[in-house]
Structure formats: structure tokens, C-alpha cells
């Protein structure tokens, strides 16, 4: 109820959010691309657990053919299937995000997936001869965990702290470098830029007017619009404002940030000035 009141106050409706309307966030056309993307990410990222679960299920099916899986396996499979269907019902129609880290949308169902994997492994190991049960279980779990660590390293999971640090680096720099009358024209960096600087934000991706006109109006009001753009946003900025001179961002930046994702700070007033500065460069 508190969340509904906050959203009603900020966005005009208790079911609205700052991420957009329901129609903007959910669409039937997202289902097939998301099935493809999530399947690929699961096989690439969780292959060891999937192999371990599949091998355990095969052992249960083959060893002691007269026996059937114990009750915990059946109940955990049912519960996992139910939760997985509910999670997928929410996220398959949701927006399509190309980055691997958006596998996190499926996190609500992964604990139960791992519980089911555990019950399969326990039941499978119980069907093996006692003399080899311990060594096989130890080797299988060690191989699965070690492979998963290698996959996580390959996907840069252990470098996320440095990767995401660009928001803090950019925000602290802007707070120190920008004048009080600055208005930050940005999209991806909007939340962190406002958090660190307290300056007003103009979201270019939500701007209904022409970008050049908006920048000119801010300047005429005595404010100082600056652009904060990540490298992957630049093509979208140009597509959204094809006739805009500002959207071309073809003049030197005042500062550059980041290594994997690169961010530029640009002052529209520099478009027609001679370059008499060296851009600051921060990691």
C-alpha cells in the first residue's frame, strides 16, 4: 500500500512506475526473443547444474528399474515447475534485454531449481554402490562448481564492481565540476547523476520536444545544459532526433569515463568554440 501511494504521488497512478507504462514494458512480441535469450543464457551460465541434474535423473531412471523416485523429488519438481511457470509468465512478455546479466530476472525460481537438483543428486547417489557413492558425488559436485566459477569469470561476474563503478565516478566528478545552474541531459545515467549531484535531470529518451529547442530554452533561462551520454546510447540519440545538431555530438568532450562502457560529458556551447582544453579522463 505504501508503494502504491508513492507511485500514485510520483507517477499519477498506484500501478504506474518510473520504468514506463504497462504497454511499454510488456508485449506478446517479446515472448519468443526472451525464450531464445533465456534458454541460451541458462545453457551457457548454468550448464554444470543442468548436466548434473540430467545425469542424476538418468541414474534414477536406469538404476534399480523397479524403484521410483522418492517423494521429495516429485514434490520439489512440482513446486519448481509451478514457480518457474509463474516467473516466466511475468518475464517472457517483459522487455527484451540483450545483456547476459538479465538472467537475474529468473532468480526467483533458481533456488527451487537448485533444491530440485539437490534432491535428484541425493536420490541418484543412493542408487549407486556404497563403495563408489562418495567419490563419484565428490567429483561430480567439484566439477560442476569449478566449471561454474570459470563460466562466471568468463562472463566478467567478478569484475562487475569495477564495471558499475562508472556511475559513482561520473557522479562524483559532475558534483565537483558542474556549476549549480547545470541541467544534466542524460538517460542511463539519470538516477545516479541526480543522486550524486542534486542537479536537475532532463531525460532525452522521454523528451517530447526537439532536443535543440529544449537545450536553447534551458540556456535562455540561465541554466547550463550538459550532455552525459554512454557510448551505446549515441546511435539511439541520433535516431530519436535525426534533425538535431546537438544529437550528432560531433564536438570534443569535456570529460571521458569508463573502460568497458564509455561515458562522455559534453557541453553544447562547445560546438562552435575552438578546442582550448584537454578532456579529463577517469577510469
Number of helices: 11
Biggest sheet layout: 6 strands, mixed
SSE run: HHHHHHHHEHEHEHEEE
Q: What structural class do helix, strand and pairing data support?
A: alpha/beta
Overall 3D form: elongated
Write out the strand line-up for the largest beta sheet, numbering strands in chain order.
Answer: 2-1-3-5-4-6
User: In the residues, how many domains can be counted?
Assistant: 2
Assembly state (oligomeric): single chain
The averaged pLDDT comes out at 91
Low-confidence stretches: none
Number of strands: 6
The radius of gyration over CA amounts to: 26 Å
Estimated helix fraction: 40-55%
How much of the sequence lies in strands comes to 5-15%
Termini distance? Answer: 42 Å
Amino acid at each position: 500500500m505504501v508503494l502504491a501511494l508513492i507511485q500514485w504521488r510520483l507517477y499519477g497512478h498506484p500501478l504506474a512506475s518510473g520504468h514506463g507504462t504497462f504497454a511499454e514494458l510488456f508485449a506478446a512480441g517479446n515472448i519468443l526473443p526472451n525464450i531464445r535469450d533465456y534458454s541460451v543464457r541458462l545453457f551457457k551460465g548454468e550448464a554444470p547444474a543442468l548436466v548434473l541434474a540430467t545425469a542424476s535423473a538418468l541414474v534414477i531412471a536406469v538404476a534399480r528399474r523397479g524403484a521410483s523416485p522418492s517423494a521429495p523429488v516429485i514434490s520439489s519438481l512440482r513446486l519448481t515447475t509451478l514457480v518457474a511457470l509463474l516467473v516466466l509468465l511475468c518475464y517472457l512478455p517483459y522487455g527484451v534485454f540483450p545483456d547476459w546479466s538479465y538472467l537475474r530476472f529468473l532468480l526467483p525460481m533458481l533456488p527451487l531449481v537448485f533444491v530440485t537438483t539437490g534432491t535428484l543428486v541425493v536420490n541418484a547417489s543412493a542408487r549407486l554402490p556404497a563403495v563408489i557413492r562418495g567419490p563419484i558425488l565428490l567429483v561430480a559436485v567439484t566439477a560442476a562448481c569449478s566449471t561454474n566459477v570459470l563460466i562466471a569469470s568468463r562472463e566478467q561476474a567478478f569484475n562487475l564492481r569495477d564495471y558499475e563503478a562508472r556511475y559513482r565516478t561520473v557522479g562524483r566528478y559532475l558534483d565537483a565540476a558542474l556549476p549549480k545552474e547545470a541541467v544534466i541531459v542524460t538517460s542511463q545515467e539519470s538516477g545516479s547523476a541526480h543522486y550524486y549531484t542534486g542537479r536537475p535531470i532532463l531525460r532525452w529518451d522521454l523528451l517530447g520536444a526537439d532536443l535543440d529547442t529544449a537545450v536553447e530554452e534551458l540556456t535562455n533561462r540561465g541554466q547550463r545544459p550538459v550532455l552525459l551520454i554512454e557510448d551505446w546510447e549515441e546511435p539511439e540519440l541520433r535516431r530519436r532526433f535525426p534533425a538535431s545538431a546537438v544529437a550528432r555530438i560531433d564536438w570534443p568532450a569535456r570529460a571521458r569515463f569508463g573502460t568497458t562502457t564509455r561515458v562522455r560529458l559534453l557541453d553544447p556551447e562547445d560546438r562552435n568554440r575552438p578546442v582550448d582544453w584537454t578532456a579529463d579522463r577517469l577510469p
